[in-house]
Write a structure and sequence with these properties.
By secondary structure, this protein is an alpha+beta fold. The protein contains ten helices and seven strands.
Length: 271
Amino acid sequence: MIVQTADEGAKHFVITMDQHTALSGQFAEHFGNDEFESIKPREQMLKVVTNHDIGWRELDAAASRDPATGLPYNLVQTPFEQIVATSKLSPDANGGTHPYCELISSMHCWGLYNGRYGMSDKVLLDMLADENRVTADTMLDKEKARQDRLKEKLKADPETAEWVEEEHLFQNYKQLQFFDTLALYFNCVQESERQEACYSHIPMSAAKDTNVDIKPLGDGTYSISPFPFDTNGVEMSFSGRYLAPVDSGDDVREQLEAAPVTTQSFRLVAA
């Protein structure tokens, strides 16, 4: 789950990974214009972007309490043995849709531990405790083998061979990373704390990347430059539930499920 920041004493907006990836899917659906190539293959990319963290579904449903906060575990604070299991479960589930969805999902999971294939200076592997490194390395080796197998399978099919050409494959991978991290920008931090940010390695095409800047303008409006979406002034929203810290011994899941589902919305405009 994602637990959004909140003012002291205020309830936190708690977001499941399905709700997070639903916002990522909205970005994917609207991505593309005269400067930025849209996602392709569209059907498969929309599916995997909207389900890239589906392996968290059972974990989110359990809503385990973090004793440090009284709230559900927030993303990277989730115990390692639970997080690492999602790295296999997400590609497994996406494989039920299409092998390409499975491949992109596996690349996403592998990249999270390896600096997003060199595009980020945050290398999760370097942050792991020594006792967790062997488990992580074993999982990552299996994901790499999965990717190699899926690439060969997709190359052998004339309808999908071009999808796994290196430049195009990483164009799609980088698109997913942009949708994911931009969704986290809105999910993780309450509106009053959001600041200017820059996203790198955003693909305009298979051969050309750029940086994309976002700036809060107030009243739920954010300027983006260069603008990568199909509609200037596009409005988007995501769901969650507001929850106060839960006392030890009380059922976090029960209290979370009793809270009404609400939404936060925002508007994106060209700078």
